[in-house]
Amino acid sequence: MEMMLNIASWLLLTIGGFFVLIGGIGALRMPDLYTRMHAASVTDSIGPILIIGGLMLQAGITLASLKLAAILLFLLLTGPTASNALASAAILSGHRPDNAQEMSAPDLS
Amino acid sequence: MYIAVALALVLTMGLALIRALLGPSVYDRVLAVNMMGTKTVLLLSVITFAFGRPDFLDLALAYALINFIGVLAVLEFFRKRPELDPENNPDHNAEGAE
Amino acid sequence: MRKPDLHSPQISRLASILTLFVLLSLTWIMWSGYFTSMLLFLGLVSCALCIWLALRMRFFDDYLFSMPVGMGLLGYWIWLLREVIASSLAVTRIVLSPRLPISPRIARIRAGSDHPYDQVLFANSITLTPGTLSMDLDDGVITVHSLTEDGMRDLLSGEMNRRVTALRRK
Predict the structure, then answer these.
(1) Which of C67, C65, C88 is nearest to C12 (CA)?
(2) Residue A103 has pLDDT above 90, yes or no
(3) Do C124 and A87 touch (CB under 8 A)?
């Protein structure tokens, strides 16, 4: 059981590290601000979930685990809020997304 | 093994730093700074376990708080820039983040 | 943490203030871990200070704790986690492919619920999912930017919107 938990935890940590790295590479490769924000949001959502999840498996049911859960909850609440604020500030200052086509719901069917 | 994750986080912070240096607009730099903040929180959490220092978790939470407030404060500051700037040209506000 | 059944706004307001106070006290005890009278007193003072600041910000005027909290929200989080994993893999594939096959799209989506908290939950869920980003929330209409056409198609199919709206109806 101990061993299983360890393996699961390392797996989560490694995959989390991989996703974080992908986000970093994406933020460098993407052509304009808004597409870069998509890449950055990989490091803001799945990265913390996996890495803090892995650490929580290591900690077990302790106070440290509770604190990690609080940190994760806080990151997941504030991350999107900061992104929204960044995007709307950029829009207001006149940044337009590069060659983005408009799409609306009736296009679907 | 913690070291591998820490290394991935530090590497990502390096990439974010390059993005912050390249710009080109203020908002790209703020995005990079925000990314670095999240990575710092994760790095502090990993360090807690790698070196067995439980007090680092408190620092991680404090850093998460400061990072969020900091990004919002910087954005609030730059949101007022276009009105001050008679040109109102988004390509020219790159010099703001020196 | 639902609105108490006593319908008077004063009672409801008092209940939210008390809830916030209990939450703040628990947070203080969890992070301090010391039970000397001096530190507990300081904790009490800082909780009271936070409540006072929140009152000054008119934090309790429109039912702060009218967020639907419960099993429904937990179920939504699990569904959202699956979405986040799926779209993270999609974005990873794009970032790692040499040609960078992006097709940015913009759309305006009307949130299914009139309640401001539901709209914020919806907008934040959109942003939390990699590949879609909500840029603006104005009067229930959310402007969304997506990295690919497929990502926008998924969002426009309206499943997330439906699930967020269903949270309150239960």
Answers:
(1) C65
(2) no
(3) no
- Which pLDDT does position B93 carry in this prediction? 46
Number of domains in chain B: 1
Q: What integer pLDDT is reported at residue B43 of this predicted model?
A: 92
Check whether the bond before B82 is cis (ω within 30° of 0).
no
The SS3 assignment for C57 reads coil
- At residue B23, the 3 state secondary structure works out as coil
Chain A, nearest residue to B69 by Cα: A82
DSSP 8-state secondary structure symbol assigned to residue C2: P
Q: Do the bridges between strand C105-110 and strand C132-138 make them parallel or antiparallel, or are there none, so unpaired?
A: unpaired
Q: pLDDT tens-digit profile of C88-108? A: 998 888 888 888 788 888 888
Please report the DSSP string for C64-120 in residue order: GGGS--SHHHHHHHHHHHHHHHHHHHHHHHHHHSTT-----EEEEEE-S--SHHHHH
Domain range for residue B32? Answer: 2-97
How many other CB atoms are there within 10 angstroms of residue C4's CB atom?
14
Closest-CA residue of C relative to A22 is C92
Calculate ∠ Cα B48-B52-B58, nearest 5°.
Answer: 40
8 A C-beta contact, residue A31 and residue C140: no
CA nearest to A80, candidates C144, B13, C152: C144
Structure tokens at A14: 């490694």
CB contact under 8 A, C136 and A88: yes
Task: Name the residue among B77, B75, B84 with its Cα closest to residue B33.
Answer: B75
Cβ atoms of C151 and C90 closer than 8 Å: yes
In chain A, the percentage of residues whose pLDDT exceeds 90 is 13
Chain A residues touching residue B36 (CB < 8 angstroms): none
Torsion over CA of A40, A42, A43 and A47, rounded to 10 degrees? 180
Joined together, the tokens standing for residue A61 give 């049911």
Domain boundaries in chain C? 9-66, 71-169
Q: Is this complex's ipTM strictly greater than 0.90?
A: no
